[in-house]
Amino acid sequence: MSIFDRYNWFTRLVYQIYAYFRILQINSSKTLTMNKLSKELREKLQNISTATIATCLYKKGLRNQSIQNVCPLSVIDGNMIGEAFTLRYIPAREDLNPVSVFKDPKHPQRIAIETCPEGSVLVIDSRKNARAASAGSILVTRLMKRGASGIVTDGGFRDSEEIANLNFYSYHQKPSAPTNLTLHQALDINVPIGCGDVAVFPGDIIVGDKDGVIVIPQEMITDVVLECEEMTLFENFVLEQVNGGASIIGLYPPTNKQSLVDFEEWKSLKNV
Predict the structure, then answer these.
(1) Strands 193-195 and 198-200
(2) Quick one: pLDDT at residue 32?
């Protein structure tokens, strides 16, 4: 074995040891405990759009919660809802990412798929780089079978047509055929990441619809849902009025006090 071969062998060994102990550290961390989203809040979020959530968060001072440049692969009714479970990729280094690394049962990408909790959304930080895939149909199918709510990457998926045909929420930037090892090295599981220019912390609430994906800080979820419910009711009222020929001036926003009186009467009639 040449000196160069020994160096490569030693480098790969060091990385594998680091990855192993990093996973142990993450799995034992008490700071990344994810609170389970209640069934009641999940049901309420099904009737709230990402657009309404974005406006609500904006009013609370959060202007950068919509994951940028991702779109849904499949057309599924309803919203994708779940707690964020994260996977972080760093730029791949060729000597550390031969195809043989997938033989390691502790490879972080595989561990992320096999440990993502039921009802959660796997959010992948691919550094907005879609030149190599973040995952393919086999991993996404396994994630679906394990009961996850969906998957989001700011990179791309391979086997995108197959993923689009799954009854599973998936969002990416664009299709990408090359294996992730070409450009991405999976490193950290369930740590704070950036995805599409948005900070995502483990346990944050992820909501996706046909407009995109938005991140709600876990500690704000109850207040956001309550406020968004009222906002949604008012928007439904306004749309009904506009369809009936009403002007938006004084109605949206309701600067005319009569608009608020009419809204309360409308809620009484609708029994909401």
Answers:
(1) antiparallel
(2) 47
